[in-house]
Design a protein that fits this description.
- The chain is an alpha/beta fold and 354 residues long.
- The protein folds into two domains: 172 residues, Periplasmic binding protein-like II (D-Maltodextrin-Binding Protein, domain 2); 169 residues, Periplasmic binding protein-like II (D-Maltodextrin-Binding Protein, domain 2, 3-Layer(aba) Sandwich).
- Strands 1, 2, 3, 4, 8, 9, 10, 11 and 13 form a nine-stranded mixed beta sheet that branches.
- It is globular and about 65 Å long.
Length: 354
């Protein structure tokens, strides 16, 4: 109890000092909004930041691409000018991350869902056209795969796509993808890898019998060079695919949309990644996108509230907004209004009680 009271005193003191010293922020070296996080959300946040900077009396926000996990860690490190105001994320924040935030004085975090994105498996325009199932993706990229009798797992032996599925080309498996700090990696593993893994009945049954083993089998990517971690820069993956038409890359639909003259997306479970297929839910590997805001920084960091208003305006994230031109799949009108209302009210997320 004493420990909890002491933490409450520290948090209250930190929040009080940031409010009292708000006018000193510019003098202390930060008179702009500071944003970190997801490489997938980065281009959307950058466009909004540039529009906001041109159309207001505030400085253009600084946006860094650090990956969702890395960005949320920086975000949760503390309150004040040395810490980011916003963390972009291509997955929802975890309760463990909210708890880490709270332990460091970041007591109130506002979640802003901004729309939807698909995760694509793409190759160069000059490469072979390919159609994959989620089971194909799992068998090609998992560290361990079924071998022999039900319940047996072996180190992944597959060298070519044809080894995985006889209808696929005899082309070496080589996939460039994001590192573990990336929200795109998290979402890809959950939606594509696990989506294919659970099509195998005896593995699907493990979910109830041994959840830890099920997750280890379905979520662990092979480490023998067939999957290559290519960093957080999705534009670099696009460049590498151009140079190597036999390789595939994993990244968000927005990068496919913006580089349609360079790369093409594989159909997954019979559906090609398109704006409409992600919007109507028929493309199976799609996910929501978010950013997270420190309530304590709003109205203290110059321009932060204005940036929130710009991002959640119809001209930005609406169906005819400028972000849809960059590949963002807008939320339905009712959902956009609900999120915008929560942002205007500065409604924070709750940390689950243990």
């Amino acid at each position: 109890m004493a420990k909890r009271s002491m933490r409450s005193v520290i948090v209250a003191s930190t929040l009080a000092s940031i409010v009292i010293c708000g006018d000193a922020f510019a003098q202390s070296g930060r008179d702009y909004v500071y944003i970190v996080g997801s490489s997938t959300v980065y281009p959307f946040a950058t466009v909004v930041a540039e529009r906001f900077g041109r159309g207001s009396d505030f400085k253009t926000p600084k946006v860094e691409s650090t990956g969702s996990g890395g960005g949320l860690k920086l975000f949760c490190d503390g309150i004040g000018v040395d810490y980011p105001d916003i963390a972009n994320a291509s997955r929802a924040i975890k309760q463990s991350e909210l708890a880490m935030c709270a332990s460091n004085g970041v007591a109130e975090v506002i979640e802003v869902k901004i729309g939807y994105d698909g995760i694509v498996v793409a190759n160069a325009i000059a490469g072979r056209e390919i159609s994959l199932s989620r089971q194909d993706i799992f068998l090609a990229l998992a560290k361990e795969v079924p071998g022999g009798a039900d319940g047996d797992l072996i180190e992944n032996p597959y060298q070519t796509w044809q080894d995985v599925n006889s209808s696929l080309p005899a082309q070496r498996i080589e996939v460039l993808g994001p590192p573990p700090t990336s929200g795109t990696r998290d979402a890809f593993v959950e939606l594509a890898m696990e989506g294919g893994c659970k099509t195998i009945p005896w593995i699907a049954a493990l979910k109830n019998e041994d959840g830890d083993k099920y997750k280890a089998v379905c979520h662990t990517i092979r480490e023998d060079g067939k999957f290559i971690e290519a960093g957080e820069n999705d534009n670099l993956i696009v460049q590498k695919l151009e140079a190597n038409p036999s390789a595939f890359g994993i990244f968000g639909f927005s990068f496919l949309d913006q580089n349609a003259e360079k790369v093409k997306g594989a159909a997954i479970d019979g559906t090609v990644p398109t704006f409409d297929a992600i919007a109507d839910g028929s493309y199976p590997v799609s996910r929501p996108l978010y950013f997270y805001v420190k309530k304590a920084h709003v109205d203290v960091i110059p321009g932060l509230r204005g940036f929130l208003r710009e991002f959640t305006s119809e001209r930005a994230w609406g169906e005819e907004g400028y972000l849809s031109d960059r590949g963002l799949i807008p939320m339905p009108t009712v959902e956009r209004k609900a999120v915008a209302n929560a942002v205007s009210q500065l409604t924070p997320l709750a940390v689950a009680e243990k």
